[in-house]
Amino acid sequence: MHDIEICRTAALGGHMDQCDSCDYKAPAYNSCRNRHCPKCQALAQAAWLDRQIARILPTHSFHIVFTLPSELRALAQRNRRWFFNRLFQAASETLLTLGLDKKRLGALLGITIVLHTWTRELRFHLHVHCIITGGGLSPEGDRWVPLPRDYAFPVKVLAKLFRGKFMAALTTVYQDGALHLEGTGLESETAFQNLKATLYKKDWIAYAKPPFGGVKDVYAYLGRYTHRVAISNYRLQAIDEKGVRFATKHGKTVTIPPDEFISRFLQHILPKGFVKIRHYGLMASGAKAKLEAARKQLELNAPDSVAPESNNPLPSVWSEQLLALTGIDPFRCPRCKIGTLVRRPLLITDLPLVRPPPEVAA
Q: Are 7 and 32 in contact (CB under 8 A)?
């Protein structure tokens, strides 16, 4: 919260932008670069996507979502790192198991998984979005085995296998005494066993969204989730001391008190060092040889595969990246549209223009 509060204020320093053709000048303050800040991730997101282009296989893809039941919400909030990691593991194991099953595909899939912890109202809702390749590499590595373009795996089978893998791990970690149970209502053995019985009887949610049409669609999807946490600034509509109004779904809005808004946002801050985007199967970092073998087989044996669009790598300089992505030249004067902005240090005479930094306790 401190990083977000002081982002692009005088507390982090900055400079004065002054046009060399007119009298325009404005202070520009440094950004916090915290990965949870809604203002600091646009270029990082674009650069990340640019690096992934060379790795994406030229085939159709599927979008599958695995969600944890609401009964586990309190326990997950008390054991965030374990639950987040286990959600990745259970989802990836489920997909890899079904992919390698000779009765279904009999091949190694490429999988990318993104953690998502929020609803549009910013409530805690733990789930993962999975992108899987429309087929896989045979165990021998000598052919590409395709999935139909309109169907991957039965959602009921996905849900039951996912439930079994997650609950087996949850039971083990509980028996090892490694879970924090305070305040969850599960402090007693009886309460935990009752929860297990309820969860095994419940149908867990594995939702297969419409398949992606091609590589471009995969990029468009990834761009919405990779470097964003909970809410983007464009969804904020009104803010005052009484409440915060922001957009939700289908043109609707919600207004909540400021402290409640902050509380909901902070639920989605990731544990320190936690990686929210992970790759498995053909897309895993240790599977480069298999990935290239799959690409070769697609080119040789799947002439109808979805070819990736040509890619012009992003420039390495941030200002050139911004220009390439948005058409905005950060050094062009926004007033006269002719002059070039020249940077100079902030002076004492500029201080009236500077918002004072918030006080920080010693």
A: yes
- Which long-range contacts (C-beta less than 8 Å, at least 24 apart) are formed by 112-116? 112/222, 112/277, 112/278, 112/279, 112/280, 112/283, 113/88, 113/277, 113/278, 113/279, 113/280, 114/222, 114/225, 114/226, 114/276, 114/277, 115/84, 115/87, 115/88, 115/270, 115/276, 115/277, 116/225
Whether 177 maps to a domain, the answer reads: yes
Domain membership of residue 315 (yes or no) is: no
Bridge partners of 332, per DSSP, are 340
Instruction: Specify the amino acid at residue 268.
Output: H
Domain range for 243 is: 232-266
CA separation for the pair 34, 335 (Å, rounded):
30
C-alpha angle 59/63/69, rounded to 5°?
160
Q: Rounded to two decimals, what is the model's pTM?
A: 0.84
pLDDT in tens, 135-150: 999 999 999 999 998 8
Is residue 344 a part of any domain in this protein? yes
For 113, residues 6+ apart whose C-beta sits below 8 A from its C-beta are 88, 91, 92, 128, 129, 130, 131, 277, 278, 279, 280
